[in-house]
UniProtKB/TrEMBL annotation:
Obligatory cofactor(s): Mg(2+)
Organism expressing this protein natively: Brevibacillus fluminis
Family: Belongs to the tRNA nucleotidyltransferase/poly(A) polymerase family.
Enzyme Commission no: 2.7.7.72
This protein's name: CCA tRNA nucleotidyltransferase
Name of the top EC class for this enzyme: transferase
Record InterPro entries: Bact_CCA-adding_enz_type3_sf, CCA-adding_enz_C, NT_sf, PolA_pol_head_dom, PolyA_RNA-bd
Length: 407
């Protein structure tokens, strides 16, 4: 479907007298028969021509020659052929120059497998033998690896990430240059490092990508991350069993033996959002709370956790615990179902369901309002939910008075 809409865009450009090709990741993934999630198009039309031909557009990155073209509910990035001049900051070219030759455009791309174009009849332009590398399962830079990594150090991480997504090896010169140029990663914004590492950890072969990173000592400018990936390497096969990225990061942090504070400072280092950070912190906290402890009273059970953190978070925590304990043959879904069943069986699940309110407690105790109310209500909720005490005003008010005394 997506491809049909993109074919229309190519045809329109051609009808207006321009060249137009599918390019980059979509060509690679079609040839590999992998799912394609976005389609990029390159053309010798200038941005102003593209905008004229497609009135329904967004001028996404005109200075780089990119216009987003909308057609039939889909959106495609259409980019003018370009070459890139010197990179003085090891990340962005100092200037881009529009060119008229497709080959020049392909030559600025990072890896041979990403430097192929395909016309609308399926004919391939592959001046750097990307197809051969696809067949041999190799990530190889277009031209000198050392030069390409020095121009843009993000490519170092992209190499490991593509290797992890495709289960490819790096060709030997590319791998050597990865080790030689690793220090250049200090020029890359931590957010970008995070994006690539998240793609790598979320890929189908994360252990493969991490082995490449560790061999090259690629993360040496981030000593904490470098340690994390080395210590967590034996756990990398388990990462794939997990679903969310928060679970995956939490497993790595747990496996590396990081204390909760150390884990959080690592997460901050990568500029994760507060939401992501809180989720990872909560998962690590639950896992620590649920770890069987010598002192029974220090560890909590599922019912307790479900009441405190809710079923969704507990299902995630359950995945994480399974990965830690490596129950590899167990079906994850049946485990999740039993956590959900346990939740369903709780006689009450929230304060709203209690037969008394904070107001009732105030009246019954003659005390002035304060944090004791929330504390007492939570205590009562646990008594009813976990110890099956009666959910009646009489019992709850009597127990409430006792708890207030103890508070
Ligand atoms: P995916 O979208 O699946 O992550 P992709 O190959 O489409 O993979 P994008 O980041 O979307 O990757 O980039 C699109 C294309 O742009 C790439 O295939 C590559 O040709 C080129 N490209 C992207 N980033 C760089 C870079 N840092 N250096 C050189 N070329 C790049
Ligand atoms: Mg892409």
């Amino acid at each position: 479907m997506l491809k049909e809409q993109a074919l229309y865009v190519l045809a329109q450009l051609e009808e207006n007298g321009y060249e137009a090709f599918f390019v980059g990741g979509c060509v690679r993934d079609w040839l590999l028969k992998r799912p394609v999630h976005d389609i990029d198009i390159c053309t010798n039309a200038q941005p102003c021509d593209i905008m004229r031909i497609f009135p329904d557009h967004i001028p996404t990155g005109l200075q780089h020659g990119t216009v987003s073209v909308k057609h039939d509910g889909a959106i495609f990035e259409v980019t003018t052929y370009r070459a890139e001049a010197a990179y003085s900051d090891h990340r962005r070219p100092d200037e881009v120059r529009f060119v008229s030759d497709l080959r020049e455009d392909l030559a600025r791309r990072d890896f041979t497998i990403n430097a192929m174009a395909m016309d609308r009849h399926g004919r391939l332009s592959d001046p750097f033998s990307g197809q051969t590398d696809l067949l041999s399962g190799l990530v190889r830079t277009v031209g000198s690896a050392q030069e390409r990594f020095t121009e843009d150090a993000l490519r170092l991480l992209r190499a490991a990430r593509f290797a992890a997504q495709l289960q490819f090896d790096l060709d030997s010169k590319t791998e050597q240059a990865l080790a030689d140029c690793a220090d250049l990663l200090r020029h890359i914004a931590p957010e970008r490092v995070r994006v690539e590492l998240c793609k790598l950890i979320g890929s189908d072969y994360p252990w493969h990508g991490v082995a490449i990173i560790n061999r090259a000592e690629l993360l040496r400018v981030y000593p904490e991350l470098d340690q994390l990936f080395k210590l967590a390497a034996p756990y990398m096969h388990r990462v794939r069993k997990l679903t969310s990225l928060a679970e995956k990061w939490a497993l790595l942090l747990y496996a590396s033996g990081a204390t909760n504070e150390a884990a959080l400072s690592l997460v901050a280092l990568l500029r994760m959002s507060n939401r992501e950070r809180d989720k990872i912190a909560l998962l690590l906290h639950i896992v620590t709370e649920m770890r069987p402890s010598w002192d029974e009273s220090e560890s909590i059970g599922w019912e307790h956790a479900l009441l405190r953190y809710g079923p969704e978070t507990c299902v995630e925590a359950n995945h994480l615990l399974q990965a830690i304990w490596w129950e590899q043959d167990e079906a994850t879904d049946s485990h999740s179902q039993s956590v959900i069943d346990t939740y369903e069986r709780l006689p009450v699940k929230s304060l709203k369901e209690l037969a008394v309110t904070g107001k009732d407690l105030l009246t019954a105790t003659d005390k002035t309002a304060g944090p004791w109310i929330a504390h007492t209500l939570q205590h009562l909720l646990e008594q009813v939910a976990l110890y099956h005490k009666p959910n009646t005003p009489e019992w709850l008010l009597a127990e409430g008075r006792k708890e207030v005394e103890r508070y």
